[in-house]
Design goal:
Blueprint lengths: L2 H48 L2 E9 L4 E8 L5 E2 L4 E4 L2 E4 L5 E5 L7 E2 L4 E7 L13 E5 L5 E5 L1 E3 L1
Parallel strand pairs: 1-11
Antiparallel strand pairs: 1-2, 2-8, 3-7, 4-5, 4-9, 6-8, 9-10
């Protein structure tokens, strides 16, 4: 065996070593990212499975032009009231924004909506571009995990 065969063998071995040292971290990082993504997917599915609430009442007071939506958290997961979304007659209302006032069990200072507690969302009619007509307008309340519930608006004087 000559010098050229030994030199070419050394070059091939060095190339394989270099290829392995660049391939291994890429493969390990890819596997870590896939594992983290699967873990996050399972956590979101578990949170969605443990989330349950019911819109118990949706009324529009014609005297004060205020829409009041009441919901009861029946699930095992605590929710953030400001992260909820309210859809009134196909119009988006940001519950955490200035368009709506929220109270959790009568406390307007908290945003944490735990199991067994009642959330009340008040929206002034001037913040809505669609007219609320009793018996025809539906409200849909959606929380951060994607769980939703709907009710039909009733008018009160």
């Amino acid at each position: 065996m000559g010098v050229s065969v030994s030199a070419s063998t050394a070059i091939i071995v060095a190339g394989l070593f270099f290829a392995f040292t660049t391939f291994y971290p890429v493969a390990a990082n890819g596997l870590d990212r896939v594992t983290d993504a699967q873990h996050g997917m399972h956590e979101r599915a578990l949170q969605q499975q443990n989330t349950d609430f019911t819109v118990t009442n949706a009324t529009f007071d014609t005297g004060t032009d205020t829409l009041t939506v009441t919901a009861e958290n029946d699930g095992a997961v605590g929710l953030v009231a400001g992260d909820a979304t309210l859809v009134v007659g196909n119009e988006y209302v940001d519950v955490g924004g200035e368009a709506a006032d929220t109270t959790v069990d009568g406390d307007g200072d908290t945003d944490l909506w735990l199991g067994g507690e009642e959330l009340v969302v008040d929206v002034d009619d001037t913040d809505l571009s669609t007219a609320i007509v009793g018996g025809e307008t539906r409200v849909v309340l959606v929380v951060e995990s994607g769980v939703r519930d709907a009710a039909t608006v009733t008018e009160v004087s």
